[in-house]
Amino acid sequence: MSDRLDHSERVYADLFGPRDTSAVDNDPEFGRILRTYIFGDLFALGELDYRTRELITVTTLATLQSLPQLRGHLNAALTIGVEAVELREVIYQLAPFMGFPRTLNAIAVLNEVLSSRGVDLPLPDQGTTTDDDRHERGSDIQQSLYGNRMADSLASLPEPFSQAVPRLLTEWAFGDFATRGGLDTPTRELLILCALAALNLEPQVRSHVAGALAAGNSPETVLAALVHLSGYAGFPLAVNAIRIVAERLSAEQ
């Protein structure tokens, strides 16, 4: 067995248990290509740990609504020690970026997986804001990572939209979600970047590359995350985002 194939089998077993090689497989060649690329090539590139890779995978699969595969990787994440609350936060924070309906689809899959593993629902609350302070608390995080870019870009809109649209973003994406427990800010920003890359939202990817770096992720971590994305969202979308990182790094030299 080649080193590449051997590595892929070890990683697969760590995540899903030993592979049943006796099971009927109508597409064995495709399965081998998939496993050696994702669990061989990607898992050997960069220094991301299993936890971070599975959080990226869950984020991407939820974003793309690949729900059967999401179910499998939620189980894999729990198997390697990711906490249920972490997985819930990964999915919850997608709402501002892909909307409530698709987020609810992913939440339903997560709850099915947790229930099947005997986890009591609902999980403990992680919210830390109220209607009185969600704007201020969200603004603090937004300002530290992104400054006034959103408000400045919309300042020419007629009232009430020039004020209302930036406020909605501050209070929703940052006040309601970024302030929650369960994930730290660097992890949240890295995963949001991956979701935006999977959605092929180039202007937002550009902004969130800066945000992920400002939150404390190294360029190597950001690049490894986007390379990992290629196995689930496809190579073109991953490379689109990687080029943006490359442009930023080149500009900083």
TrEMBL record:
This is Carboxymuconolactone decarboxylase family protein. Signal peptide: none annotated. The lineage of its organism: Bacteria, Bacillati, Actinomycetota, Actinomycetes, Propionibacteriales. One of its GO terms (molecular function) is peroxiredoxin activity. It comes from the Bacteria. InterPro entries: 4CMD/NDH-1_regulator, AhpD-like, CMD-like. Residues 28-112, 164-247 form the Carboxymuconolactone decarboxylase-like domain. SUPFAM superfamilies: AhpD-like (SSF69118). It comes from Micropruina glycogenica. Gene3D superfamilies: AhpD-like (1.20.1290.10). Pfam families: CMD (PF02627).
